[in-house]
Amino acid sequence: MEGFQERNPNFYVFNAVMHLDESTPHLHIDYIPVGHFKNGLEVRNAKNKALEEMNFGKDAKANNRWRLSEWDILKNICNTHGIEISEPKKSRGYSYTVEEYGEYQDRINALNAEIERLTAERDEAVAEFEKVSRKKVKLTEIDSVETGKTVFGGKVTVSQEDWENVSDLAKKEVASQKQTKKLRKERDEAVQERDKLKTQLAAVSSELSEYKKKEENKRYFSREKQNAEAQRIKREEQLTRDLQKARAFITACGLSEDFARYKYNKTRSTELE
Q1: Distance between CA atoms of 129 and 107, rounded to whole angstroms?
Q2: Which of 108, 103, 177 is nearest to 139 (CA)?
Q3: Number of helices (H) and strands (E), helices first, in the chain?
């Protein structure tokens, strides 16, 4: 812990607890990030400013750089003692800005709209396919055409009207098959695009959920723990003021030497015990 505090002078550590309640022992470090400003309050609770003053930058990835730096130090300590640790997870340690949060939300809305559009196109294609299928040419009507044989090579003759009907039916059948094939292809492409968008939406929603969880944890820390720490600091300041008043009173009464002998005898007595 002394090394942590020395490396991170802008992090005021007020609590550190070792937990053994899981398969891997781990340490919880509670600290208040302190930043210094030229305007307004000179000292504030500001992690971004604290990281900037500790030379980790001031962009959105500053916290991740600090986390990886601490991990490297922890890894070296563990290697010295023959302890193997796992690689840090890449999904943690990044704080989204308000602009990035808005961009993710806009992206989710756009993906939802695209899914609705493709779903509508798919349903329309399926409906058209069913419509074309219902209008499929009944080729059995061709059997009703009257035919006759000629004297030349057993050829079959039909009337002009029947020939035109048969030709029209054949053309309709070819057109129907082409339209059906086209609609099936469009339907399959729409389904694939919809599934792809659903996968992207799930990934973005997961990242957004993780971000919201981190934001809630930040608010909880600032509401509860920071208020408690502020009360503790306030009590310490009051005790300091009371001690200064007591020392001033002792000096004013000419009891400084008596008080010094009392402190010496008290300390000596405690050491002997």
Answers
A1: 33
A2: 177
A3: 7, 5
Structure tokens belonging to residue 47: 């992690």
CATH class of the 99-220 domain in this structure: mainly alpha
Six token digits for residue 107: 């992206």
| 18 sits in which H/E element | strand 11-19
Residue 221 confidence (pLDDT) above 50: yes
Per-residue pLDDT of 30-39, as tens digits, reads 999 999 999 8
Instruction: Find the distance separating the first CA and the last CA of the chain, reported in whole Å.
Output: 31
Which whole number is the average pLDDT over 189-200? 80
Residues 214 and 222: their CA atoms lie apart, in Å, by: 13
Are residues 250 and 242 in contact, defined by beta-carbon separation less than 8 angstroms? Answer: no
3-class SS of residue 33: strand
| Residue count (the chain) | 273
What are the tokens at 229?
């720490």
E strand or H helix that includes residue 152: none
Looking up tokens 């010094």, which residue turns up? Answer: 260
Its pTM surpasses 0.70: no
Q: Which long-range contacts (CB under 8 A, 24 or more apart) does 231-240 make?
A: 232/14
Enumerate the β-bridge partners of residue 35.
44
Nearest Cα to 1, choosing from 29, 36, 42? 29
Domain locations in the chain? Answer: 2-95, 99-220
Strand, helix or coil at 43? strand
CA distances from 190 to 70, 176, 185 (A): 48, 21, 9
How confident is the model over 55-101, as pLDDT tens digits? 999 888 898 899 899 989 988 988 888 887 777 665 444 555 666 66
